Amino acid sequence: MNARTRTARPLLTRPLLTLTADLLAAPAAHAQTDVSAALFAANPEASAPGANWETYDLLRSKLGIDLKFTMLPAGADGDNKLGSLAAANDLPDVFEIRNRSLFYKLVEQGQLAPVSSLLPLMPGRTKDRYSDRKRNALVTVDGTMYGLQDPVTLSRQYGIMVRQDWLDKLNLKAPTTLDEFLVVAKALTERDPDGNGRKDTYGYCGVIDFDTSGILPGLGLGNHFQWVYAAYGVSGNWNYRSGTSFAANLRNPAYRQATDFIRRMAEAKVLDPDWATMKRSDLRNRWQQGKCGMFFESVGGLNAGFANFDANNPKGELRFITPPKGPRGQKGMGTYANAGTLLVVSSKALKAGKGPAIAKFLEWANSGEGYYQLGFGKKGVDYTLKAGIPTVSTTNVNARMTNTQMRWIALNGKTNELKGRYGLIKAKDGRTLNAYTLLMDAHKNGWIDRTGDMLVPAAPNQADIERYVSESIVQFALGQRPLNDANWTAFQNGLKGINFDAYEREAGLTLKKAGFIK
Amino acid sequence: MTRRLRTPDDRRFDLLVNIFLLTVLAVTLIPLLYVVTVSVTPLGRSASLLLPAWDWSFNAYAELLKQPAILRAGLNSVLITVSGVLISMILTVCTAYPLSRPDLPGRKFLTGVILFTFLFNAGLIPLYLVVRDLHLLNTYWALLLHGAVSVYNLFVMKNFFQNLPDSLEEAAKIDGASELQVLWHIVLPLSRPILLTIGLFYAVTQWNSFFEPILFLSNRDMMPLPVVLRDILTGLNSADYVESAATTTAPPEGLKMAAVVLTTIPMLLIYPWIQRYFTSGTLSGGVKE
C-alpha cells in the first residue's frame, strides 16, 4: 500500500464514521450553535483543555453552544497563524488579537465584523467593559466598532524594589528624590551591603525594556527608566497637552535633563555595566543572586523568582519605594494603557448568524458561574470561595492551569479577584510577603494613563524612528556622546531626517479626533 | 606504502589546522557546556562554567519532566520524527533511484519538473490552502507529507546512486536479479552512508519543526517539543503575573536551560552513532575490475 492510499483512507472513513455516529446519536435537547474561539494561552506552559472539559459540557447544556477552543501560540507566531487563517478565509468565529497592526489590516480586508449589534445582547459585559467611549475608540475605524476592547485587568504591577535589609544595614532611608536616589544607589554600590568583602553590588538594576503588558512602550529607554522621565514631567511618548502645543516629549528640554540624570547614574557606576544590553531575564538573575540594591520588577516577577532570591539571600527583605521626585516635585512610575484583551468576531461568523451565541457566551464569561469556571477552574477542586475570594488550590496546579486557559476573557481585575490571585509569598524562615499588598503599593505609584498612545498609527519607518531615538539616548546616557548643546541639537535635527515631524503630526491629529486631547 | 617525509612546513600547517579546529571546538563547546551547567545550578548559586559536580542539582529537570505537556510533546516529537523519516526516506529513495538510471524514459523532463519546485516556491498561503483542502489540517499528515521529499536531499542521493559502478548492477542482472532486487540487495546496502546522512538530515528537520505545527495543528496536545518548549520559555520570561506553579525548586534560568538540554539530547545521542557512517570508502573492495 503506498503512502497516498494510506493517507486517503482516514479521509474517506472519517466522514463515514461521523455520519454513522450522527445517525445513531440521540436527538439533541435543543439546537446547538457551533462557535470556534481562538485565544492566546493564558498558561502557555500547560496543556489545552481536552474534549471532556467540563466547560464544554456546561456551555452545551446551559447555553446551547458547542464551543471549540484553540490556543494561539505566543507572540509573532500567533500573529502569523492568524494571518494565514485570514488569507485562507478560515478565521475562527471569535478570537483574540494582540497586534494592532494586524487588527487594522483585518478590518481593511473586511475580515472582521462590526460588533455594535452584539453589545445589547450582553448588557452586563457591555456595562462592565465596553461602555468607555475613549477605550472603544481604540477599536473604532471610520465610526464603526470592530472589536471588543476590555479594560486592563493587570497592569501597574511594576515598581522600584529596594533591599530593605541593606538599607537598614547601611543605616539609610529609602530615597524620595532623584538626588537622594543617587546617594543611596552609590552607597549600595560602594559600601559592600552584602558584606562579602567584594564590590559586586549595584545601586540600581534596570534594562532597556519595552514590554507591553499593561505598560506602554516609549521612545527611548523603555519602562525601567520611565520613573526618571516622570520626575521631570516627560514620561511617555507624547505630552497630551491640548491645542497647538502637542508634541513628543523628547522635544522638551526636560527630556534632556532626565537623560542627563541617567548619564550621571551610569557615570557614578551605580548601574550594572551591562544595563544597555541585558535582557529582562538577565536582570532577574541579578536581583535573585543578590547583586541589586534597587531594581525594577513586577509583583509577578517577584513571586516567580522569590524562591531563588530567598535561597541566595536568606535574610533579604524587599519592598517597593515610591517613585523619587524630580527637581520640580513631579513624580511617577511610568505610563500605562487601560486596554487589556481585545476580542474580535469574524465577518464569516456574523454572516452565519452566530452573533447572538457569541454574545451569550461572552456574557456568561463576564460574571457568576461562567466567570468562575473560566477564571478559576472547577469549583471545589481548582479553587474554593472563601468570603467571596476565590482561593486557588495548590495541589493540582497543572489541571488548574489547563482549566483556566481561557481566563483572560473572564477576569476583570476587581478586588476579590486580585486577592485570590495574589496570595502570600513565603520565605524559608517563615516570613511572608503579601503579594496583594505589594500590588496595591505598586498601583499607588502615580502611573500616568496613556491609553491613547495605542491609537497612534505606526509611521511607515517606525522601526527606524525607534532605533534612532533609542540609540541616541543610550549613547548620551553611556557618555559615548557628550550631552552638550551641540549634540542635543544635532539629535533633534536628526529627527527631521527620519520624518519624525509627520509621525508627530499624525499622532496629534489621531489623539484629538479620538478625544484624548482637546 | 612509503611514508612521505614531513617537512617543517607540513608540521606548521598541521599545528595551525589543529589550533583552528580547537578554536572551533571551544566556540561550539563552551556555550553548550554553559547551558548544561546553568541547567544543573541549584537555587542560591550563581551559574558558572565550572560548577563542581557535587553542587549539581537536577531539580530543573525534575520540574520540567513533572509537566505532562513536556512528556506528551516529547512523545509527539518522537512519533513525528520516526514516521517522518520513514516516509521521507521511502519517497526519496524511490524517486532518486529511477532518476539515477540513464535508461529512465523522460528522465530529463522529470528532473526539470522536480528542480522547478526547488527553485520556485509557491509560498505559505497556497501551501495552507492545499493542506486545508486535502482535509489534512490538525492531522500529523500535514507535517509528514508537506516537505516529505527535500529536492536537495533527493539530488544528493541521486548523484550517489549514479556514482555506483554499473558493473555491480550488470553482475546482479546476469545472476537473474530484478530491478527491485538490485535496489534492495545491491544499491541500498552500498548506499548506507548516504542513507544515514540523508536520514539524519530529515530527522533533524522533523525534530526541530516549529512553524508548520503551529500553522497546521490547532490541538495543543498534538504539538511537538519545540513548540511546547518555546511556550514554557515564553511563560517563564513573561512580565505578567506568574502562577504559583512557576515558583519552583530550581532557578528560572535553570529551567530554561534544562528545557534546551532536554530538546537537544536525542539528536546529540543519535549523531555520534551515525557519524561513523559519514566516511566514504565503503565501496573499496566491492568491485574487482
UniProtKB/TrEMBL annotation, chain A:
Q: Which InterPro entries match?
A: Bact_solute-bd_prot1 (IPR050490), SBP (IPR006059)
- Gene3D superfamilies in UniProt: Periplasmic binding protein-like II (3.40.190.10)
The UniProt keyword set, sorted, is:
Cell membrane, Lipoprotein, Membrane, Palmitate, Signal
> Where does the record locate the signal sequence feature?
1-31
Pfam families with a match to the protein in the record: SBP_bac_8 (PF13416)
- Name this protein carries in UniProt: Extracellular solute-binding protein
UniProtKB/TrEMBL annotation, chain B:
User: Which InterPro entries did the record assign?
Assistant: MetI-like, MetI-like_sf
**Major site of localization recorded for this protein:** membrane
The topology of this chain with respect to the membrane is: Multi-pass membrane protein
- Top-level taxonomic group: Bacteria
UniProt subcellular location: Cell membrane
Q: Which UniProt keywords apply?
A: Cell membrane, Membrane, Transmembrane, Transmembrane helix, Transport
Please name the CDD domains in this protein's record: TM_PBP2
Regions that span the bilayer: 12-36, 73-97, 109-129, 141-161, 182-204, 257-274
Limits of the ABC transmembrane type-1 domain: 74-274
Q: Which Pfam families match?
A: BPD_transp_1 (PF00528)
- Family assignment from sequence similarity: Belongs to the binding-protein-dependent transport system permease family.
Name this protein carries in UniProt:
ABC transporter permease protein YtcP
Q: Which organism does this record belong to?
A: Deinococcus seoulensis
What taxonomic classification does the UniProt entry list for its organism? Answer: Bacteria, Thermotogati, Deinococcota, Deinococci, Deinococcales
